[in-house]
Amino acid sequence: MPVSTRIEEVRNEITALAQASSTATEVMQGVCRVLHQRMLKYNWVGFYMLESGATPPMLVLEAFVGAMTPHTRIPLNQGICGAAASSGKTIVVDDVSKDPRYLACSLETKSEIVVPIFVRGQVAGELDIDSHFAAAFGTEDQQLVQYCAEVVGKKLEKA
Predict the structure, then answer these.
(1) 159 pLDDT exceeds 90?
(2) Which of 20, 42, 48, 103 has the CB geometry, 3.0–4.6 Å to 79, for a possible disulfide?
(3) Which CATH architecture has domain 3-158?
C-alpha cells in the first residue's frame, strides 16, 4: 500500500476516533494506539501536556504507547520537547545523535518529531513520536502528526 494511501486511511481513523470519543484523554489514547499500530516507523508515540500552574513550566507525560521512558516530566527549557513547546513550532530531527537538545530515552531512537498542541491559541502540550529509523518523518508524516495534534487541541477546547 502506498504511504499516501496509508496516511489518508489513518487520518480518517483519527477523525472517526475523535468524533466517537467523549474526552480528550480518550482521543489521545486512541491517537497513540492508531499511530503506533498503523505507521510502521512510529516506535514510540506519546502526549506531553503542560502542567497547569507549575513553576518552572513543566511538560508531563500522559497517554503513550511504546517503551517506558525516564522522561515523564520535562522542563520547557530542556530537550526537543521543551523546544517545540517553547517555540510553538513543529520540530523534526532526522538524526537525534546530531541534535544536542535530544534527551536520550532509548538507544534505538534515531529520529523524532514533536508537534505542539494549541488550545485557544496557546500551547497546551505536544505530540511526540520517536522512530528507530533515521529520517523517518517526511512531509506527509509531518502533516499527519500535525493533524492529530489539531484534533486533540479541538477536543481540549470543548472540554
Answers:
(1) no
(2) 103
(3) 2-Layer Sandwich (3.30)
CA-to-CA dists, residue 58 to 44, 75, 77, 95, 154, angstroms: 20, 5, 9, 25, 22
CA distance 35 to 108: 18
CA distances from 100 to 6, 18, 63, 96 (A): 33, 35, 26, 8
Residue 106 pLDDT > 80:
no
Residues for the chain: how many in total? 159
Q: What contacts 88, CB < 8 A, 6 or more positions away?
A: 116, 118, 123
The string of pLDDT tens digits covering residues 49-78 is 999 888 889 999 999 999 999 999 999 989
